[in-house]
TrEMBL record:
Name of the protein this chain belongs to: Methyltransferase, FkbM family
GO biological process entries: methylation
GO molecular function, one term: O-methyltransferase activity
Annotated ranges, domain Methyltransferase FkbM: 44-196
InterPro entries the record matches: FkbM_Methyltransferase, FkbM_mtfrase, SAM-dependent_MTases_sf
PANTHER family assigned to the protein according to its UniProt record, in alphabetical order: NODULATION PROTEIN (PTHR36973:SF4), SLL1456 PROTEIN-RELATED (PTHR36973)
Keyword Methyltransferase annotated: yes
Matching Pfam families: Methyltransf_21
Keywords from the UniProt entry: Methyltransferase, Transferase
Transmembrane feature ranges: none
Domain of life: Bacteria
Species of origin: Roseovarius azorensis
């Protein structure tokens, strides 16, 4: 029934409904692009089947899209996605700080994680640096990470991309979901040291059992932007 309703309601109508929800991803993208955002290439890490990129294209239609996904489960869907969107390509690999082989927990198609604990089942996948799968001059970049605690190694392999980034979107957490994971306030400090500040949030999630805050997406832009020169509310 849900899929039937989705097909019956035009995508533009659904988008407008989501934009009215201030904490929805689409509302955040509308606010940010409305202030002016120049993006040459979107790097979607943890792309799954391309659904996030498909939505982002409504707001950033002229960019190239590079979808990075480690789980082979999504390869057929990504092939279809890239056929349907000629300005996109995908890399079937994990993102990391060096080209190597990594253990990857692929049990959950939408919740995989690089370098899981030794007690978790894992497959071996290729890993790439974001700096190696993009070229100088392809920016400004939008870098999106949905990588379940493995963000720091990915950012370490994206120094050039970050130097040319106009927007970085990172899923962050209120609990340390992996030994190497940063909590959301630690990620804010980490990115601040690299010249980025938070301009928006979206999709906060609360843990069902006890109602504790679990995760949210943070939107980072360079501290050189004019928004960071204003220190007043109005």
């Amino acid at each position: 029934m849900k899929s039937l309703l989705k097909r019956a309601v035009p995508a533009s109508w659904r988008r407008q409904v989501h934009e009215t929800k201030r904490t929805h991803m689409l509302a955040a993208l509308k606010r940010i692009t409305g202030r002016g955002l120049n993006v040459g290439t979107v790097i979607d890490v943890g792309a799954s089947d391309g659904r996030w990129s498909a939505q982002a294209m409504d707001y950033i239609p002229d960019a190239q899209y590079v979808l990075v996904e480690a789980n082979p489960h999504h390869e057929p869907a990504l092939e279809v996605f890239c056929r349907n969107h000629p300005r996109s390509r995908f890399v079937l690999a994990a993102a990391s700080n060096k080209a190597q082989k990594l253990r990857f927990n692929a049990d959950d198609p939408f919740g995989g994680k690089a370098e899981p604990g030794e007690d978790q089942a894992a497959i071996e996948v290729d890993a790439v640096r974001l700096d190696d799968i993009t070229q100088p001059g392809e920016g400004p970049f939008l870098v999106k990470l949905d990588t379940h605690g493995y963000e720091v190694p990915i950012l370490e392999g994206a120094g050039r991309c970050l130097s040319e980034a106009a927007l970085v979107i990172i899923e962050t957490y209120g609990f340390r979901i992996a030994p190497e994971a940063l909590l959301f306030h630690e990620m804010v400090a980490y990115m601040r040291e690299r010249g980025f500040g938070v301009v928006d949030i979206s999709d906060p999630l609360w843990r069902p059992g006890d109602g504790c805050f679990w995760q949210m997406d943070l939107y980072f832009q360079p501290l050189t932007r004019p928004e960071f020169q204003r220190m007043t509310y109005f």
